[in-house]
Amino acid sequence: MAAQWVDLLWPVLLLLNVEHVDINKGDPHFPLEFTSYPISHSLLMGLVWGAAFGLIHYLIKKDRKAAIILGLCVPSHWLLDLIVHKPDLPLVPGNSPHLGLGLWNYPGLTALAECLFFTIGLVLYLRSTHAKDRQGKWSLWLLVSLLVINQLAGVFFPLPTSAHAIGWAAQYQVDLHHPRILGRQTPPSESAFHKVYIPPANPTLPTLNLCNKTHKMKSIQLDQWGIQNLRLRDIPTPCTGENEVLVRTTATALEFHDLLVVENRIPFGIRLPYTPLTEGVGTVEKVGSRVTRWKKGDRVMIPFISRWESGKNTPYNDQLRTGFSAPGLLSEYTVQPENTLVRTPDNLTDEEAAQLPVTGLTAWAYLVDQANMQAGQTLLTQGTGGVSLIAIQLAKMTGLKIIATTGNSAKEARLRSLGAGHTINYNDFPKGAAKQNASTTASASTSPSTSPGRTVSNNLFFR
């Protein structure tokens, strides 16, 4: 809507006689003469509208990055118009030079350029969204068909007879941009992963799709922030879509960021009531009508980023995180998309596997994907949190040398049993001595980042 805003505004101003257009039937290429549209189509007003658009979005969503992007989208329309328009685009309202490269004078090149931009836009949209049911598929292609028909109508249909007729005809374009055309009339619910829906940049908690009012489940929720405000309650069991799976939670793992969210130490824009917890495993209780990968009784690990199926993560995927912008796992049941569930290893109990989806994946991603650790290198781990403990075990399997730090002498033996070749209790040394001890022990190739605290500040001496 931001990129199209000036074209949505222009027909309204045309009908109000604030801006003006003439029809030149003698022009074989483009018969419309835009005699005056400084409010909707001048560069200065494009910047003003962009600033207003971005400011309003920021005030509502508190998302600075999205506000900047939307603010830039509005004047970007002027830059694209500059390519195709005759020299009729004003820089500022009033007496001003008018610019335009006039591509509309060359119908063949115009058609090629518009088809190219339309195709690129459609491909980007298809790559950033994922339709999981028939409604999502046919509604998108219905919109594409209507846009193509609208474009062909401008070429083959008779010209409007007046400026007011043009204004009213342009309202059809406004209707094409109504969110119902894309099936986006409602925000995503816990069981609405199949909708073609682009969520807001600032994630907010989706509303649970609680369609089964008779079957209740236990859930621990917050009505106000603070760990002391956690309450056990009965709520309806959520419904399962045709490409979704109802998972019965069997084991969960506690993360430091779960505490940050519950205490609201870092505002994530989450709405209350809120169900916390991001990491866990479960058993398939029920599958949707189109699900083929899973059956009742399968043991599964629940994804943290529910839309992330493969490849690199994207901002679109990242906007839906379990326990943040989607309901967490402190419920008997959750609804999950079929494609991102992962089978729980047979050799692990549910309790052992519960910290693999977030903690284990974090350690693996750091050591393998980011650090590209190789046998013979040295790893420094900080403290005895989940990421550090799993990193030690992965590093041991890879053939790395491991230095582990802790502030508790009782934990040193446990760290050595997991694979650490050398342990340092940083409380046994003054800061200068600790630094010297570490430097004479080994030079660490890398050190995974863990939750901030006193451990991290002390262990910075060991890098």
- Sheet of most strands: 5 strands, antiparallel
Secondary-structure element order, as H and E? HEEHHHEEHHHEEEHEEHEEHHEHEHEHH
> Please, what is the average pLDDT?
77
> Termini distance?
49 Å
Count of extended strands: 14
Strand order of the largest sheet: 10-7-8-9-11
What characteristics describe this protein?
single chain, 463 residues, alpha+beta, Quinone Oxidoreductase, Chain A, domain 1, Rossmann fold, 5-stranded antiparallel beta sheet, 3-stranded parallel beta sheet, 15 helices, 14 strands, elongated, disordered C terminus
Q: Can you walk through the features of this model?
A:
The chain has 463 residues and is α+β, with helices and mostly antiparallel strands. It folds into three domains: 5-182, no CATH class; 212-354, Medium-chain alcohol dehydrogenases, catalytic domain (Quinone Oxidoreductase, Chain A, domain 1, Alpha-Beta Complex), CATH 3.90.180; 359-462, NAD(P)-binding Rossmann-like Domain (Rossmann fold, 3-Layer(aba) Sandwich). The protein is 39% helix and 16% strand. The chain contains 15 helices and 14 strands. The strands form five sheets. It has a five-stranded antiparallel beta sheet with strand order 10-7-8-9-11. A hairpin with a 7-residue loop joins strand 3 and strand 4. Helix 11 crosses helix 12 (386-398). The chain is elongated, with a radius of gyration of 29 Å. 32% of the residues are buried.
